[in-house]
Amino acid sequence: MRIEPKAKVGLDKRGPGLRLRGELILPQGRPLFRGLEFKAEPGVWTCLLGASGVGKSTLLRLLGGLETAGVFRGEILVSDRQPLAGRAAWMAQSDLLAPWLSVRENVAFGARLRGEKPDWVRVDALLAEVGLKDWAQARPAALSGGMRQRAALARTLMENRPVALMDEAFSALDAGTRARMQELAFGLLQGRTVVLATHDPGEAARLASRAYVLVPDPAGARLAEPHRFATPPLRDPASPDALAAQAALLAELRKPPLEESLRERAS
Amino acid sequence: MRRVLDVLISAAGLIALWALLVRMAELPPYMLPSPWRVAQVFWNDHATLWRNAKITAWESLAGFALGASAGIAAGLLLTISSLARRWLGPFLVLSQSVPTFALAPLIVLWLGFGPESKIVVAALGIYFVVASNFYDGLRRTDPGLLDLARVMGASPRRELWRLRIPAALPSLGSGLKVAAAYAPIAAAVGEWAGASQGLGYLMLYANARLKIDLMFAALLTLAVFGLAFHALVGWAARRMTSWAPEAA
């Protein structure tokens, strides 16, 4: 089930590796995470799993240079020693399409926001790539959820950045659409460094080269040992490697938080 | 078409009720004239009504333009400048605790009997609703879209022009709709405070001479103009923001 990267949307250089080290202290003085070291391997997908509110999105926001609720003390290192700012693309659970623009204009939104002239030939090529050629002039409201997320993917590719930060990018889609979308995104984003925050172990088992679970802890969330895979992605969901990974990640996610296990032991 | 029919039906019902009330209560014409008498006034005095309506319409439109521009400018200023928020914001709210009606005589004193004072009264009456609606819309940009714009590397100026202002247009539209309905009323209030022409002046004139049927005709003309202007601005706003989910 390997998907070959397409020349016209591909990247000439592999995305860089990323490393985030440090702590994030929330306004109440509680650490969201502490002594954390997160690594994203160059040019492949790294998945970040964890319960809601544990800090997955915050970690992604830090990588994207966005505001967070707390104060971050630490560093973000990039393997090629260039700054990360301006080299990441952002994709969220909601498609974030501007409702007043056509699909085509939405794909070119980044250029418009930077005051650049959009490369319309590339826009149209990307729309064809994600199967939205006939919907270029439509407003986002006319599209289904899956189509809207495909438009968001085209917009992400239009940015042509070596790093893609995805916050639950496929979570709002129904199972069938989600599987197709994962395959499409995996094929089109090949060579880029992708960090995908997700709560779905099955998704990580298909896409990740490395999968981390962010474990809640009153003293600050920490990362469990990353799951290592025996086969390269994109994996068949029914393959032994994917199934084993899914089970292992689920087991890690189901471990009770520290305070609960302490309480149980006390009673 | 359905909506036009609905309006006609409810208008006809209202007129019937009005006629019935006059007949049943045997009210004298100087208390409440029958619809028939008001219709006669429309027929006989249409030149007077039309001449005065044009004056009030012009004052309302100019006041609307002035007040809407001031409101849009205030909304933008509050958005881009924290200094304006701190210093101008409280003043804007305070200015609304003084009713325009109370200010009208003062403005007529300052600007005279001509249309200028009415234009300013109308502008004062509407700028706040435009400013507050627009400012609200500008503040409520989808935070996800703002995140996206930041990661894409948008400058604050382009973020405002390409993202926040377009996203706030539906809010601006509802502010302008309310303003359009209010502008003719405010202009008439300005005329009450001192004028020699206009529908508001005509109402006072007719009232003083117990020509209540003429007063009603002027009042109805004002109401029809207000409704038409409201509908026109609503239509324009809907066309400009056809992408937005239909607002109430």
Structure description:
The complex is a heterodimer of chains A (267) and B (248). Chain A has helices at 56-64, 103-107, 109-114, 120-129, 145-159, 175-188, 201-207, 240-254, 258-266; strands at residues 18-25, 31-40, 45-49, 71-78, 88-91, 163-167, 193-198, 210-215, 222-223, 227-228. By secondary structure, chain A is an alpha/beta fold. Chain A has a domain at 14-87 and 164-169 and 193-267: P-loop containing nucleotide triphosphate hydrolases (Rossmann fold, 3-Layer(aba) Sandwich). The longest helix of chain A is centred in the middle third of the chain and has 15 residues, at 145-159. Chain A is globular. The termini of chain A are far apart. The model of chain A is unreliable at 1-8 (pLDDT under 50). The longest helix of chain B is centred in the last third of the chain and has 37 residues, at 156-192. Chain B is mostly helical and 248 residues long. The radius of gyration of chain B is 22 Å and the shape is elongated. Chain B has one domain (61-240): Orthogonal Bundle (MetI-like fold). Classes of the chains: A alpha/beta (267), B mainly alpha (248). At the A-B interface, strand 5 and helix 3 of A face helix 7 and helix 8 of B.
Quick rundown:
Chain A is an alpha/beta fold and 267 residues long. Chain A is 34% helix and 21% strand.
Question: According to CATH, what is the topology of chain B?
Answer: MetI-like fold
Q: Quote the beta fraction of chain A.
A: 15-25%
Most residues in contact, chain pair and counts: A-B, 25 and 22 residues
pLDDT average of chain A, as an integer? 89
User: What is the helix content of chain B?
Assistant: over 70%
Mean pLDDT over the full residue set of chain B: 91
How many beta-strand elements of chain A?
10
Strand content of chain B: under 5%
CATH class type of chain B: Mainly Alpha
Shape of chain B: elongated
Number of helices of chain B: 10
How are helices and strands ordered from N to C of chain B?
HHHHHHHHHH
Structural class of chain B: mainly alpha
Could you tell me the number of beta strands of chain B? 0
Would you identify the CATH H-level superfamily of chain B?
Answer: MetI-like
What distance lies between the first and last C-alpha atoms of chain B, to the nearest angstrom? 19 Å
Largest sheet of chain B, in brief, is: none
N→C terminal distance of chain A: 51 Å
Low-confidence stretches of chain A: 1-8
